[in-house]
């Protein structure tokens, strides 16, 4: 027997060869790590040694919250973009409205100016008609009454016949020569009736009468009323006396020689 056989060893007992076991698990959304020793000293408590560490993990709630945040951000961006488009549309509409308003005002002013011009012309035309009516009234008032018309007509015809054979001179009103309206003016002046000087005005100086209802002393005219180019005086028997032209001078002719366009009566 060896002399050392009974000497006790002072070495610490070796741990079991069993290696530590690493255990992992997920519980309630946390990662759990556990390390357990296979052998413990004899004087240790009879309970497993456990080391546990909890780490946060991404849960469904977090994922949902993140998704909602993204949706909210996208909605906010969409709202801003929509508001910007609305503001742009409102601005364009306001500019278009201003333009239409300006055009409407311009058109209204033009219409008002046009109506004012038409009213002015109508007023002038009415005044011209009133002036002509006044002249006719003056002529009618100065004409002899019907009781003395026969005598006036006779005086008128007598004067006209006394002028037969005299010369026709444009612009002349006697006593040695006349033009057509100068002769009629001079003739009516003999009986106190003042006629306008030119044939255009003499054709509107009295009341229009038909050629089938002529009386002695009616003024005959050629051309249209208000723009006649020649006048003469009806002397009865289907005849008239007038200063015809420079070739014939003052002559008496039947109506058929040169049928007049119309007639006016001042007696």
Detailed description of the structure:
Helix content is 43%, strand content 18%. β7 and β8 (239-245) form a beta hairpin. Mean pLDDT is 78; it is low at 16-22, 26-40 and 138-149. With 267 residues, it is an alpha+beta fold. The chain has helices spanning 60-142, 146-162, 180-189, 199-202, and strands at 21-27, 30-36, 167-168, 177-178, 207-209, 219-222, 230-236, 239-245, 249-254, 262-265. It starts with 20 loop residues before the first strand and ends with a strand. It has a domain at 143-265: Alpha-Beta Complex (endopeptidase fold (from Nostoc punctiforme)). A 6-stranded antiparallel beta sheet has the order 5-10-6-7-8-9. A two-stranded antiparallel sheet has the order 1-2. Strands 3-4 form a two-stranded parallel sheet. α2 (146-162) crosses α3.
User: Any idea of the CATH topology of the domain at 143-265?
Assistant: endopeptidase fold (from Nostoc punctiforme)
Cα-atom Rg, whole angstroms?
Answer: 65 Å
Which strand order spans the largest sheet, edge to edge or round the barrel?
Answer: 5-10-6-7-8-9
* Unreliable stretches covering 5 or more consecutive residues: 16-22, 26-40, 138-149
Q: Can you write the helix and strand succession as a string?
A: EEHHEEHHEEEEEE
C-alpha geometry: rod-shaped
Which CATH class of the domain at 143-265? Alpha Beta
Q: Please bin the fraction of helical residues.
A: 40-55%
What's the average pLDDT?
78
Calculate the terminal CA-CA distance, rounded to whole Å.
194 Å
Number of helices: 4
Main sheet characteristics: 6 strands, antiparallel
Number of strands: 10
CATH architecture of the domain at 143-265: Alpha-Beta Complex
CATH-level-4 superfamily name of the domain at 143-265: endopeptidase domain like (from Nostoc punctiforme)
Give the amount of beta strand, in percent: 15-25%
Helix/strand-derived class? alpha+beta
